[in-house]
Amino acid sequence: MKCPIRLLSGILLLAVLSCTSSNQNHNSQKELSIKYEKYELENGLDIILHEDKSDPIVAIAVEIHAGSNREKPGRTGFAHFFEHMLFKKSENVPEGYFWDKIPEWGGTFNGTTNKDRTLYFETIPKNALEKLLWMEADRLGYFINAVDPKGFETEKQVVKNEKRYRVDNNPYGHRNYTIIKAMYPETHPYNWTTIGEFEDLQNATLEDVKEFYDQWYGPQNATLVIAGDFDKEQTKKWIEKYFGEIKPHGEEVRVEPKPIQLSSSKLLFHEDNFAKLPQLTLNFPTVEIYHKDYWAINTLAEILTDGKSSPLYKQLVLTDKLTPDVSAYHFAQEMAGNLRILVNANEGVDLDEVRSSIAKAFRQFETDGVSEVALNRVKTNLERQFYEAIESVQDKSFQLAHYNTFKGNPGFIETDIKNIQNVTAEEVYQAYENYIAGKNLVATSFVPKGHPELALEGSERAFVKEETQEPYQLKDLPESNMGYQKTPSAFDRTIEPDFGPDLVVMAPTIWSRKLGNGMEVYGIRSDELPLVSFSIRLKGGKQLDDPDKVGVANLMADVMMEGTQSKTPEQLENAIRDLGAEIYMSTDHEYITINASCLSKNYEQVIGLATEILLEPRWDLAEFERIKKETLTAIKQRDADAGSVVAMVRNKILYRGNIMAHHPLGTEISLSNISIDDLKGYYDSFFVPNVSAFHISGNIDENRALASLTDLSEKWSFKEIEMPEVKLASLSDQRFFFVDIPESKQSQLNMMSVTVDGNDDSYLPISIANYQLGAGSHGYLNKKLRIEKGYTYGSASFPIKRISKSHLLGFAAVKSNVTKESIEAFNEVVQSYRDNYDSKDLEITKNSMLRETARDYETLDDLLGILHQISTYNLPHDFIEQNQQVIKNISMEEVRALIKEYIDTKKMIYLVVGDKATQYNRLLDMGMGEPIELDMYGEYMIE
């Protein structure tokens, strides 16, 4: 189980935080205060409490100081596999509680493992806190005896499917494996990937599980963080009750830094079955996290590649035109680190040219050095990123757990920030000389299959262990492990705690106005952080493209970010970055959106720049040609990704003959027909305020927000336009389709049906009807395909909302040789759902959906999302409260009627994207007819 986690390390805060613990108290005039209390239980468990009463929710994080670096050779991937196992059951918490109960309580949960730690986390309504502490304590202290053979073997299949999903079936998926094998000797704990080897996972035994648990999962090796709205004294009593009697176990083994030095450079290449573009990485060994040079190397990575003024971007993108982008990142970990430069080159580019271009950029950097302007711009931009990384209570829990695990002190954040602030230009350049200039490195060339000539000269073929598709057979093993003696406890741990008092969820106050030019304005004030987020959304998007020139709207949005009438592209970007802001434009099927976030003190300047971008496009022909070429590269990358292919084909099947059938990027053919005049024509025809809406949330009041829109109101004139009507063609009677991706290790399965317009009164009831089937980890689809069968890393179903005709989507990415069995399992679940949906299902759905409301208003993005819903679908300000009444009042008869109408295998359309050679013939005897072959764009294959 994985999720992205943002850590503060390497992120600047100009206003130092005030952190309070039981041992120290720093008080001064500061912009932001994050207070915490830390104490330790007798068993060694570290407890960190942070109170935040802004929303009636609580986040819990349990971090174990054990990642893949604690594994043994021959048992790789075990820390990650163990993370999976802890979501199953424990001595006193029944099977499936994490999957079923947390969503039912209105919460979310997940876990993640890296080389140095394993993190488990949840966010729940505050009245479920004791319930969650009961569950977390049981899996920390009362887990190991409950592991049963069948659950153990099933989870092996799930983890192997995750590896296929993330690694084996992805372009460049084997890159990290190739790098670390070359970078670290076999005796180094970073010599293997976190997800591990198939053979090691398959050979893992129950004895291995017990050994790993006994060694690393003692309370003295863990940190428990609780952040949010809770009663501190009551919570301390619960912590003592549930966690206090867990016995310490395992030896404390100190992790020592183990940086490496390369005696020579290593050049490796791999012909990638899925990659469409050549990719080069240069990897330089550096230092462990929080080494004295750590902060300077972080800053060096930013300065080398971030923005149009950076030396690598100027050379590779603007001058040599080898790639649309270049990035660098410092992967500093507990024992060692490396700085990586990554380039996805344009189609057919020889990677020797890329390396030569990087060398030229380095020489220019050596001549120019590090300017104070560039250094300060990086620091200013990181201030906003810091605040964004602590917007939610879950994010705060991550930071507190991280600093406590790796420095023994959540308050180390102050030192971290101070060290970032104090980095000098001289230190950054010294880091370049010490770790980059002329140093040995690991270089990897990943090239499309059949094109080894594009790899760096002198590269050796990398050893990449490709999976073999062994016959799938889950062993017939006992379902439970009832013979063990339960761990003694002072109280009956099988008794689930009750909910706390009913929640009072206060919806935010929404204000709205209409400007004289017809633009709607919506806002929500939130003063928790000194941030503002806003958007300008223009109705139309790709939907207004000429069908023969799909991609105009997307190209136009990208080109409009490349300077204004008074600013070059570089000047515009620097103006944005000097304010520590972010402004970008995006295009989807139905909207073009200008998105922005900034410090509230800089808001007026940022909205001024957004207005300038909107009203004063530069229409630079050279930039248009560059962006067009970059978009062609993006199309190549899109077409290499199985998930993107299945989405493109799905839209073509559902909306064939309609503009909605096309991807917003377009195709190589459609882009070849587009000129800059097409962009200007779209802008002149459709960029008008009366089909637009402005949304704003954050540390700003209504009067200030409205005053900032004077230029938009006065200079952007009302214009009558006729929005074309979007009509859907009748769906074909064909309902079983196949797209071939040769040698694919997984099959992507989609099952879908067209439903209703997004603003139809039936949309929410359809979501209610689908909830128990697939709206999360608790859904029957996930239970069958992942938990019971082990066919997939995850399966779900949900409505995809569109203004014109939404659709219901069920999906799973399954191991190739169970493609047929997975479709059969899906159909079995759907049929059972139709036949057996009962009052308990409806009660769980109502409880879950109503309790989720507690998490609706936490971040500025959450608030903007509410405003987007209102403006897009013309909803009342209190639509969430009205939706709650719909949920409360819907009847069993209504839900069953919707299931009958929209969740019916006889009406659904099936799409399989996978390996034809091994799977196509197996699908012929399913009673669904012969699958119709389509190409990767959804077009019918010509015999």
Automatic annotation (TrEMBL):
Signal peptide bounds: 1-23
Family note: Belongs to the peptidase M16 family.
Protein name: Zinc protease
Organism, scientific name: Flagellimonas flava
Superkingdom of origin organism: Bacteria
UniProt KW Ribonucleoprotein keyword: no
Biological process, per Gene Ontology: proteolysis
Pfam families (alphabetical): Peptidase_M16, Peptidase_M16_C
UniProtKB keywords: Hydrolase, Protease, Signal
Gene3D superfamilies in UniProt: Metalloenzyme, LuxS/M16 peptidase-like (3.30.830.10)
InterPro entries found in the cross-reference section: Metalloenz_LuxS/M16 (IPR011249), MPP/UQCRC_Complex (IPR050361), Pept_M16_N (IPR011765), Peptidase_M16_C (IPR007863)
Molecular function as annotated in GO: metal ion binding; peptidase activity
Domain Peptidase M16 C-terminal positions: 204-382, 673-848
Record domain Peptidase M16 N-terminal: where: 48-183, 533-665
